[in-house]
Design a protein that fits this description.
By secondary structure, the protein is of the alpha+beta class. The protein contains 14 helices and 39 strands. The structure holds ligand MIG.
């Protein structure tokens, strides 16, 4: 059962869309007040596991950490950093079959058994709703929460293909090279992302015509080869008198204002920009309509970046650049402090219009990014009559109805494969089904071994995109010598596509998670509670990937009898395995995963593009009897249970 408790008059975040009964008391948590803040406290048993918080650092079990919801553009994804790009204020108390959502657009400080305190403390400002769900199991509690949030975003089928990206692709030639590189090496591909260099002077809704003389013709040419272009769109609109998008935005009053009542200016890639007031429906509408620039040119997939919003400086904190660099060099710590102070000041210095009243950005900071995704999604749903791809960087719970997320600027290191796994499970609890990390890592140089192992993990995440930063080693799968091992791993993604697509769509239609921790399915098994490197993907598969450098084998715990599947690039070798621990060899060019007891896994043919994937002649692996397959044309908006049919093992 889901109920809510109000503290003051809550700010409407639109996170929860279904009606929820209001009650007076919170379960499990007591509430105090100090220095104008609310403090929610819940004592924890020694063995209690706490899940949740979506995209945060730390373990899948959040115990022992501090997490601050305050959307931040940061490349530090280590456990000592309390804030990443998103705010997903949901805690899941596994032992109590209970989850609780602190629905406030401002900063929230979560201290979960911090320094062995033996309790959860949540500190934030009032004027908020707190939602709580009690159910017969943890899994049911989360599903009831997801139902209250509302149905997940539905991407087109091609969005489940493999995507290639790099901060540094500039002109047509670069994109052709990437396409041909994959084709020549026999590697599948569905889309290539266009990073900020496609734009004219980093202006949204523009293209550099010296690099792309005819974007429409180019996108059509790529599409003939099955490759879609997926441009980036940033939050800020360049201050640019005389330029139509800018002038139109000014004319329609869609930008945030400053203390003086003028349009606020913040420095990002294009130089000074105005920030669309995504909290205002009129501004969302305006921004969404601008995508016509791309849809007119045959483009139907996008990523939204810098929507925390990231600020390099503002009209109030623009200091001399040289001094800033020098300070960073000599006193990096001091510079960090100065920056932090600037961030607060910057976010306090601009305003939104909510119901015709000014609202300080700082107080509603965490819902800005998600509302950019919403603006994009609502615009595209008017411009197109079928599904489109959209994923963003910054988000708040509820944005999962409008699009997906990627987890930002990670690093080419082994720890971040683990972080990727944890994020997937935690994001799914918060309604972000379409998600994934920069496969291979964004910062730093990726090794062949790391990329192969990472691809073997991303094979199971809805968003499977290889992305890296300029200045790092080229990371396309054909750049590491003999591509055979990459071909083997990537072919698995396309052979599993009918399953991945089907499980995703069923999860979305049924307020379910696509990826979940083992404990959600095996609540009685004490051993699975702290397993973070094995996850359930859909309802048939358990994965247990290699996440350590140099390892060629690992221990896997099977909570029930399962079928082990070894994919060597050609055949699926199935071995029945009894419940319990097992040492499993996984050579670098293979993927091993498990099919659950009494379940089936449909697999298709190895193809090089999602348009060649069909639901015909699927092979059924595993010891189950039936499989419910969701299938449609991959584009229609008419996604219902009617598209599900039952496959039987003969
Ligand atoms: O300030 O567009 O997270 O994926 O390649 C950096 C350039 C801006 C950050 C994104 C990253 C993207 C990069 N962007």
């Amino acid at each position: 059962m889901i109920t809510k408790v109000l503290f003051g008059v809550p700010f409407p975040t639109d996170a929860v869309t279904q009606p929820v009964e209001q009650v007076r008391e919170l379960k499990h948590f007591s509430v105090g007040e100090e220095y104008g803040c609310l403090i929610f406290t819940c004592p924890l048993d020694a063995d209690e596991v706490v899940y949740g918080l979506g995209e945060t650092t730390g373990g899948l079990n959040k115990r022992g950490g501090q997490y601050i919801s305050f959307n931040t553009d940061t490349a530090d994804h280590s456990d000592s950093n309390p804030s990443l790009y998103a705010s997903h204020n949901l805690l899941v108390l596994e032992k109590r079959n209970f989850c609780i959502f602190f629905d406030t657009p401002g900063k929230v400080d979560f201290r979960i058994d911090l320094n062995g305190s033996g309790k959860i403390e949540v500190i934030c400002r009032g004027n908020m709703a707190v939602y709580q769900v009690e159910a017969g199991s943890t899994y049911e509690a989360v599903r009831e929460f997801l139902a209250a949030v509302g149905p997940s975003y539905l991407p087109p089928r091609w969005a489940f293909g493999y995507g290639q990206s790099r901060f540094g692709y500039k002109c047509e030639q670069d994109f052709l090279e990437v396409m041909e590189g994959h084709q020549k090496a026999g590697l599948p591909l569905d889309y290539i992302c266009m990073d900020i260099d496609y734009m004219d002077g980093y202006r949204d809704f523009s293209v550099d015509s010296s690099r792309f003389p005819d974007l429409k013709a180019f996108s059509e040419r790529m599409l003939k080869e099955g490759i879609r272009l997926v441009p980036i769109v940033d939050a800020g609109i360049k201050v640019d008198p005389g330029e139509p998008v800018y002038e139109d935005g000014v004319k329609h009053g869609v930008f945030c204002t400053n203390k003086e009542g003028k349009l606020f200016q913040g420095g990002v890639w294009p130089g000074m920009t105005h920030f669309p007031d995504f909290l205002n429906p009129k501004a969302r509408k305006w921004f969404g309509q601008q995508y016509k620039f791309y849809t007119d040119r045959g483009i139907e997939g996008f990523w939204n970046d810098m929507n925390e919003p990231a600020l390099f400086y503002t009209e109030y904190t623009k200091g001399p650049k040289k001094l800033d660099l020098a300070l960073n060099f000599v006193f990096p710590r001091l510079r960090k402090k100065v920056k932090e102070r600037h961030t607060v000041r910057d976010y306090q210095s601009f305003f939104h219009q909510v119901d015709s009243k000014p609202v300080c950005h700082y107080d509603v900071h965490n819902i800005y990014g998600g509302n950019m995704i919403r603006a994009t999604s609502e615009g595209l749903s008017e411009l197109l009559d079928h599904r489109y791809l959209i994923f963003g960087r910054s988000s708040y719970i509820g944005a999962g109805r409008y699009g997906g997320v990627w987890t930002g600027d990670n690093t080419s290191c082994w720890e971040h494969i683990m972080l990727n796994l944890r994020h997937m499970a935690s994001l799914n609890m918060c309604g972000f089904l379409y998600s994934g990390a920069d496969t291979g890592g964004f910062m730093g140089n990726c090794s062949r071994e790391l990329l192969l192992r990472w691809l073997a993990v991303s094979t199971f995440t809805p968003l499977m995109r290889n992305h890296s930063s300029m200045g790092t080693r080229a990371q396309e799968a054909y750049r590491f010598g003999d591509p055979e091992a990459f071909r083997r791993i990537l072919s698995l993604r396309y052979r599993l596509l009918p399953y991945i697509y089907s499980e995703y769509m069923k999860a979305a239609l049924r307020s379910d998670m696509y990826i979940k921790p083992l404990a959600f399915t095996f609540p009685e098994d004490e051993k699975v509670k702290n397993i973070e490197d094995q996850l359930l993907v859909g309802n048939s598969i358990m994965i247990a990937p290699i996440v350590t450098k140099g390892a060629t084998a690992r221990n896997v715990y099977l909570p029930e009898d399962m079928t082990m599947v070894r994919y060597d690039g050609r055949d699926f070798v199935c071995t029945p395995c009894p419940k319990g621990d097992r040492q499993v060899e996984v050579p670098l060019d293979q993927v091993v995963f498990f099919i659950r007891k009494d379940r089936l896994l449909p697999v298709g043919k190895a193809v090089c593009n999602s348009r060649e994937v069909t639901a015909e002649d699927l092979q059924l692996l595993g010891d189950g009897k039936t499989y419910e397959l969701y299938w449609d044309d991959g584009m229609t908006r008419n996604c219902t249970e009617d598209n599900i049919r039952v496959l039987e093992k003969s």
